[in-house]
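Deliverable D2.4 — example input (structure tokens):
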């Protein structure tokens, strides 16, 4: 049986973010195609490791004290130690603790790493955190047997570190939303078709302050529904809320999928302010719901949303977009159709997961009953890395 171990996420069923949602979809997809899938799951506490199944997917539930970055690092380390005891193909989602993957490389375990976004350029991180991410960006490139980039711009970045032959570009996917009840929207005090949505963590790089300021400069006749957890003790969060007019509604963090889908489906427009990253799940989900999209003008968003979206690069340009589009039903209708077409073209789960399966099958290898001694594996690993770097064109380094 073809076997895959998925590392690097909080686990399944998804309840945290994009990687967990992807892991759930991929695991179920591969299960239906005859694979054995094992997913490592992080839990809080000091309980012994539990091995169980969820909808036919094997789970290894590892408990670690606390719920912070150090807890996640400890979980990653324990997951890798367990995976290293087997000869199964591994898929690691994210490179934040890529240095730990030295264990898998030394043991001869094939490991494909999804390199996520360029984490070390994000404004929210301290200098020590940025250094840690920068180092692990390099370690991931060196230690992974193959790399996945979720966006062409991410692949361009990785090619500065390793050969392009070592990288496959596969974007993120989403479920199309063809219909949704109006009830969840009305319960939140919104009128279907008379509000815009913003779904993002309230961080400077996601342009929340610019979005709220641009919307609030004058009455719009629409509501701006902002999803996300806002803490009054956070200066940036407070600044965003102070900039809001009475047409801006802060709904808090909502994780109930049917409610979020209903909010998207009945929205007049989706506003996406992310300035960095690769293929952002929230933007893909907006396209899958057929939203008219206004996005920050950068290479990441423009590849995902395509020519049918509108783009802004300042508070003033965004305000102009609101003024022009909210009074032009024909333009909004055309943008919605363009979003649906872009989504169907490349961003559906069947397309994305099929590309992943094709990649994974390339790296499957037969089981072996015996392994060389660890010191021999280590020498071979170092030799392989030296040869690999020697073959990389100087420009790519």
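Example output (designed residues):
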């Amino acid at each position: 049986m073809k076997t895959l171990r998925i590392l690097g996420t909080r686990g399944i069923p998804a309840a945290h973010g994009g990687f967990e949602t992807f892991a759930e979809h991929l695991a179920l997809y591969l299960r239906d195609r005859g694979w054995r899938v094992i997913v490592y799951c992080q839990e809080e506490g000091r309980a012994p490791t539990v091995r169980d199944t969820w909808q036919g997917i094997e789970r290894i539930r590892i408990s670690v004290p606390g719920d912070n970055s150090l807890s996640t690092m400890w979980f990653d380390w324990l997951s890798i130690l367990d995976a290293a005891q087997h000869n199964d193909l591994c898929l690691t989602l994210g490179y934040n603790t890529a240095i730990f993957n030295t264990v898998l490389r030394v043991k001869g375990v094939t490991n494909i790493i999804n390199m996520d976004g360029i984490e070390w350029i994000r404004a929210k991180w301290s200098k020590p955190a940025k250094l840690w991410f920068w180092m692990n960006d390099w370690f991931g490139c060196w230690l992974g047997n193959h790399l996945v980039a979720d966006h062409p711009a991410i692949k361009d970045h990785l090619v500065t570190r390793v050969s392009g032959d070592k990288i496959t570009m596969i974007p993120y996917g989403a479920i199309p939303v063809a219909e949704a009840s109006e009830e969840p929207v009305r319960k939140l005090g919104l009128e279907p078709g008379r509000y815009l949505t913003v779904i993002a963590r309230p961080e400077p790089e996601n342009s929340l302050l610019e979005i709220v300021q641009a919307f609030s400069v004058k009455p719009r006749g629409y509501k701006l529904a902002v999803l996300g957890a806002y803490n009054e003790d956070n200066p940036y969060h407070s600044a965003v809320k102070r900039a809001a007019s009475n047409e801006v509604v802060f709904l808090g963090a909502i994780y109930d999928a049917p409610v979020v889908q209903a909010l998207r489906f009945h929205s007049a427009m989706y506003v996406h302010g992310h300035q960095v990253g690769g293929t952002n799940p929230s933007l893909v989900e907006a396209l899958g719901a057929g939203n008219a999209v206004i996005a920050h003008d950068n290479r990441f968003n423009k590849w995902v949303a395509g020519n049918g979206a509108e783009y802004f690069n300042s508070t003033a340009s965004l305000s102009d977009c609101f003024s022009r589009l909210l009074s032009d039903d024909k333009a909004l209708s055309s943008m919605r159709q363009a979003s649906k077409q872009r989504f169907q073209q490349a961003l559906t789960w069947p397309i994305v997961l099929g590309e992943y399966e094709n990649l994974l099958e390339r790296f499957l290898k037969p089981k072996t009953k015996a392994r060389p001694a660890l010191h021999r594996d280590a020498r071979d690993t170092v030799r392989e890395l030296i040869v690999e770097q020697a073959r990389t064109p100087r420009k790519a380094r």
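DSSP finds 15 helices and 14 strands in the chain.
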